[in-house]
Write a structure and sequence with these properties.
CATH superfamily of the largest domain: ATPase, nucleotide binding domain
Structural class: alpha/beta
Order of helices and strands: HEHHEEEEEHEEEEHEHEEEHHHHEHEH
Oligomer: single chain
GO molecular function: kinase activity
CATH architecture of the largest domain: 2-Layer Sandwich
Number of strands: 16
Strand order of the largest sheet: 6-5-4-7-11
Number of domains: 3
Keywords: Kinase, Transferase
Family: Belongs to the ROK (NagC/XylR) family.
Bound molecules: zinc ion
Helix content: 25-40%
Protein name: NBD/HSP70 family sugar kinase
InterPro entries: ATPase_NBD (IPR043129), HTH_MarR-typ (IPR000835), ROK (IPR000600), WH-like_DNA-bd_sf (IPR036388), WH_DNA-bd_sf (IPR036390)
Distance between the termini: 22 Å
Length: about 375
């Protein structure tokens, strides 16, 4: 069993990568002798392993890192159809992927997961024995225990205790999370923002998601809805949104919205790159669509910067084409809508991701709970 001290050490390593015993002792404020004891426990348990020697000034030191095969995690995305289902190791590496049919019925979802787990586990002889949890990402609001979906328009759910239902069907600890929040936890735990304490993720896919990590923790807000920029009103009295309001960012700048506007204009295109190509020929309608979408997204991000002053905005996108007009206008709108003293001060990082990003995020939610405990203060 892991003690509180063990978990504190795992948190430090998961946040910073491999560390020497001396570095860990400094990070935790412990004596070298106490740290050696803790590290020995975790090596004996198979949680940590020696990951190479560092030569610098003084004696060479051995760095310790998480043993990737100590535990495995399943992640499922309910925002895609079919729903991707992946298996990750403790290093966040995807080692298997299958698909399952999407359903809106919680019992059917749990049953599908339980039926398909053996196929997922086939990839590694110890995967079934070392499964540390199941994570599920969905579109909607999730309670702070990461157990109940408070509300989801896409799934038509209110108060669905999906984590408990999945646990009953599989016998494995399960956690659920909002799709963008799952990506933020993934990026903090395994991704490109491990060293960032304050950042915001904006996920651009069919819809727009957003999540904040503040002081190293996911910030949920009072009702689990922090970061819902998709439904910020950007155009007063604008087009109706699926949420019931009008003029939401999602109706202007999501990939679905951009493609729908292109379809209405009669363009035969299926990707953002297609529309960028049409705009590059000088087509006024295509230019207008991309300009309007980029301006709206940039304005929303500028407001995020004004409100939270994050150290980084990480824009994850599942489509190519962010280097074109849409992305350029977005960057300009960010710069022109923040206070001059903020202009250019917040790095905007574009991160092209594959369509398993939400399933990976889901697995990261399970890994986070397993390693560190619930993502609450
Ligand atoms: Zn809306």
């Amino acid at each position: 069993m892991l003690t509180t001290s063990h978990r504190q050490l795992l948190r430090v390593i998961s946040e910073s990568g491999p560390l020497s015993r001396t570095e860990m002792a400094v990070a935790l404020g412990l004596s070298k002798a106490a740290m050696s004891g803790l590290a020995r426990d975790l090596i004996d348990l198979g949680v940590l392993h020696e990951a190479g020697t560092v030569y610098g000034q003084g004696r060479p030191s051995t760095r310790l890192d998480l043993q990737p095969e100590w535990a495995f995690f399943a992640g499922i995305s309910l925002i895609q159809d079919p729903a991707p289902m992946i298996l990750c190791d403790l290093g966040g590496k995807v080692i298997a992927r299958i698909d399952m049919p999407l359903s809106r019925d919680p019992q059917t979802i749990a049953q599908s997961i339980a039926e398909r787990l053996p196929e997922l586990f086939k990839v590694h002889p110890q995967a079934a024995a070392k499964i540390g949890g199941i994570g599920i990402a969905l579109s909607g609001f999730v309670d702070e225990r990461q157990a109940t979906c408070i509300q989801s328009t896409l799934l038509n759910w209110q108060g669905v205790p999906l984590a408990d239902i999945v646990r009953e069907h599989t016998g494995i600890n399960a956690f659920i999370e909002n799709d963008a929040k799952a990506i933020a936890v993934h990026e903090k735990l395994f991704g490109s923002t491990r060293d960032q304490q304050n950042f915001t993720v904006v996920s651009l896919g069919d819809g727009i998601g957003c999540a904040h990590v503040i002081d190293g923790r996911l910030y949920r807000g009072n009702h689990g809805g922090a970061g819902e920029i998709a439904h910020c009103t950007i155009e007063l009295g604008g087009a109706p949104c699926r949420c019931g309001k009008r003029g939401c960012l999602d109706t202007i700048a999501s990939m679905n919205a951009i493609k729908e506007m292109a379809r209405v204009e009669g363009f035969a295109c299926t990707t953002l790159s297609d529309i960028e190509q049409i705009a590059a020929t000088g087509n006024a309608a295509a230019i207008k669509i991309l300009h309007r979408a980029g301006s709206a997204l940039g304005l929303a991000i500028a407001n995020l910067i004004q409100i939270n002053d994050p150290g980084l905005i990480l824009i994850t996108h599942t489509e190519d084409g962010l280097q074109g007009l849409f992305g350029t206008v977005m960057q300009q709108a960010i710069e022109t809508n923040v206070l001059p003293r903020y202009a250019g001060q917040t790095p905007i990082r574009l991160h092209r991701v594959s369509d398993d990003i939400w399933a990976r995020g889901a697995a990261s939610i399970a890994a986070h709970n397993f390693l560190i405990g619930p993502n609450t203060n």
